[in-house]
Amino acid sequence: MTLVSAGAGWGKSVLAAQWCQGGAPPGPVAWLSVDADCADPGLFWSYVIAALRDAGGIPPGSELFDLAPPPAVTASFLARLVAGLEALPQPVVLVLDDLDRAGVGPVIDDLRRLVRHLPAQLRLVLLARTDAPLLSLHRLLVAGDLVRLRPADLSFTRAEARQLLGRPGLALRDDELDLVLERTEGWPAGLRLAALWLHDQPDPTAAISRFAGDTRPVADYLTGEVLAGQPADVQHFLLRTSVVDRFTAELADRLTGGRNGRQLLDRLEASNAFVVGLDSSRDWYRYHHLFADLLRHRLAVEAPGAERELHRRAAEWFAGQDEPLETVRHAVQGEAWGLLGRYVVGNAAALALAPEASAVLALLHAVPASAVADDPELTALVAFAHFPDPDPDAMRSAVRAARAGITRLPPGRADSVTLLLAMVDAVAARRACDLPAAATLTEEALAVADRLTHADVPALDEYRALALVGHGNTLVWLGRIEEAETGLVAGLDILRRSGRAAVTQSILADGYLGLIAAMRGRLGEATRRARAAIEVGHRIGWSDEPPLASAYLALVLVHLQRAENDACADVLASAKTVLDRRPDGPLDLACQLAGVRLLLDEQRGDEARRAIDAVAAEVTSWPDPSLYLLRWLDVIRSEADLALGNPAGVVERLGAAAASPSPTERPSAHELVLLGRAMLELGDVRAAARLVEPLSVLPGLDAGPATEAALLAALAADRLRQESHAMDALSQALAAAEGERFLRPFVLSGQRLRPLLLRYRQIVGRHDDLAVELLDRLADDRPGPVRGSRSEHEKLTQRELAVLALLPTMMSNAEIAVELFLSINTVKTHLNALYRKLGVENRRDAVRLARRRGLLVDR
């Protein structure tokens, strides 16, 4: 690492740029000019990765190529970044210019962690006005891994000062040169200012005497003199373009009202008048920070009130360039409230998807209450500013205030505001677990969107996509599955056309489509969709982020139905990790219900009963509990009753299911099967058979209840000694289960199914592979060790064996997580369990011991 720390004007950026261009850096150079926006960690790391990628430091195929920081940067994201940098095929240089502008906060904390684990392939060059406080550089200094340059290293020598000051037409005596050098203390900016100033002085000797004896600071004196020496048109240009951090010739003309911005910029850059070109094509420029500060001060003194109008012009220009952060910033600074309201209302959906979302929302919080009071659009912005806020009451209060003023707007603008408010209100309702209200609000948003055009709302496509996805993932929990699937497919199609910015919502939509597929028995499709979403999440570094919860839950249901309990427990842990970051009522509930089923399958009935009571208490506290979810709760209660030997409780709870008008819909079909199982347990075999018989001929019944119903019919026929009927029903059950591998119903049937399966193989012989697999699974249906036991003889689970098999490779924890479709935290949990069970402390010892015990076979 190299740290160049000195105040403004010491040539830090120039020195680093010259080294990058001619100093033979060890690899591609990524340069990030840090600004105030970089105080937001998500934005800062987005810029860093983009700079590395654009510089060619991250080749396609690298795990960093698509990496995108989550809104709240986590330790796992930074670990992924470090691992990806370590794996780069060549070194890369990252220059962070003006690091101080990131402030003291989370970005510095993140950088401290990066420095602590600095990858060998990264050459870090930090340019700052101080010694980069809080970066903990002492360890690097002691290890000899830090080069540090300070003002003493950067100050000009006498020879260098003479070279700079010895321009044509300016010949200084040695004593005059010494006076300038003494006054500036070798400060490059001071010498440069002196050169500009002295060149235009008729009597340089007299000017030097004034300069040497003046008591004002060098910067104030010289900068003021240099500015005063410029022609009036140049001063006008400099002062009015100083309100922006960066500008083009076109923007300069917009700010100054002139037409010669390009010529003036070329002249200023050629004369070294503190204008810095930001790109090789010389499209973007900025002023030296020292010079910009003085210009802004002079503008405020010489033209009070001009800044507001200039910021407004800048906001209008940036809005036309699709630069949301600069648009909002300058609109706020210029108090251009009308422009701000119309721009954000028209683009809020796109802003919510953009990397700059958190920075934009922070700026919206700066809008004063006095401006908001009588403006419905600005009041809507206050509601939108609460978008990431977990407090639904605050969001709904802001929405109510905004709705009150909509009637004062013309129709097109009123509809635009209504659209934004419906979306924000729907998010608040969903977070409050008011599902019917959330569904109504997203329906309202979609209806309003149909009345609008892109001229009214530039981000209309993004609005429609977010409304479709939000509507779909709400309808799932209301039991309107087909509508949900249709909406999610349509929303996902729009999102995929929107590119990189919409990737997180695409993950959410794909995950929910996988969840729907799992709920409807299409386990293969569910696996494909969920794994696709998880792969994208891992690729962008979001393995523990909220959008992945639905994909993890889809896989939980797949593993559960396939009786893959270890894998189910693993993915359930990943889902819970994600939901801990941002709770989601319906997904939390579904995870808890899946966890209850897993406990029942592992014969941990008492724990399952306590978990059911906790779920019931939670769901009944919701504002308007969905009947669909309450029925699912009854299904799980009934499964628990059967597992705990209380079939009468099932009959009492589900007796009305026999008259269900729609047995093809879940949970109706499950209710009928559970009721049939209870009747079978109670000895009413014929009634059980009659109850499920209609399911065998119903069209559209998915593989889950079809398998369960046919298996129950086979067991009932076997009890009645109807051999032929039993064989036919079992064949039907195996056929229904085979394609999607629905093994759970067979495994739960236990030992009483074994004799029937054995006779089936002898008499019928179809579906033999599945029959043999089931017989193996049923050979010993005693419960395994309780999860979490501390027995030193505890066996490794299947998932722990899967992780163990990858330990001899060079895969990092992140790569193992991708390979096994787990979160990094879940992989770490498995590693800890592995080490504990094997009695080792590290990866190398685990591999050595596992080979000795025959748990690993080298390929």
Summarize the structure.
This protein is mainly alpha-helical and 859 residues long. The model is unreliable at 781-793 (pLDDT under 50).
Description:
- The protein has 859 residues and is mainly alpha-helical.
- Helix content is 63%, strand content 4%.
- It is built from 45 helices and seven strands.
- Strands 2-3-4-1-5 form a five-stranded parallel β-sheet, with helices on both faces. It has a two-stranded antiparallel ribbon with strand order 6-7.
- Helix 4 (106-116) links the parallel strand 3 and strand 4 (122-128).
- Helix 28 runs antiparallel to helix 29, helix 31 (585-601) runs antiparallel to helix 32 and helix 35 (668-681) packs antiparallel against helix 36 (685-692).
- It is elongated.
Write the layout of secondary structure elements.
Layout (H helix, E strand, L loop, with lengths): L1 E4 L6 H11 L6 E5 L7 H14 L20 H12 L5 E6 L8 H11 L5 E7 L9 H6 L3 E3 L1 H4 L3 H8 L8 H11 L3 H12 L4 H10 L4 H11 L3 H10 L7 H8 L4 H10 L4 E3 L7 E3 L1 H14 L3 H15 L3 H10 L3 H17 L3 H8 L4 H4 L3 H10 L6 H12 L7 H21 L3 H17 L8 H16 L5 H17 L5 H17 L3 H17 L9 H13 L3 H17 L3 H17 L3 H15 L7 H17 L3 H8 L13 H14 L3 H8 L10 H17 L3 H16 L5 H6 L4 H10 L4 H11 L19 H9 L6 H8 L3 H15 L4 H10 L7
Parallel strand pairs: 1-4, 1-5, 2-3, 3-4
Antiparallel strand pairs: 6-7
Helix pairs in contact: 8-10, 9-11, 12-13, 16-17, 17-18, 17-19, 18-21, 18-23, 18-25, 21-22, 21-23, 22-23, 23-24, 23-25, 24-25, 25-26, 25-27, 26-27, 27-28, 27-29, 28-29, 29-30, 29-31, 30-31, 31-32, 31-33, 32-33, 33-34, 33-35, 34-35, 35-36, 35-37, 36-37, 37-38, 38-40, 40-41, 42-44, 43-44, 44-45
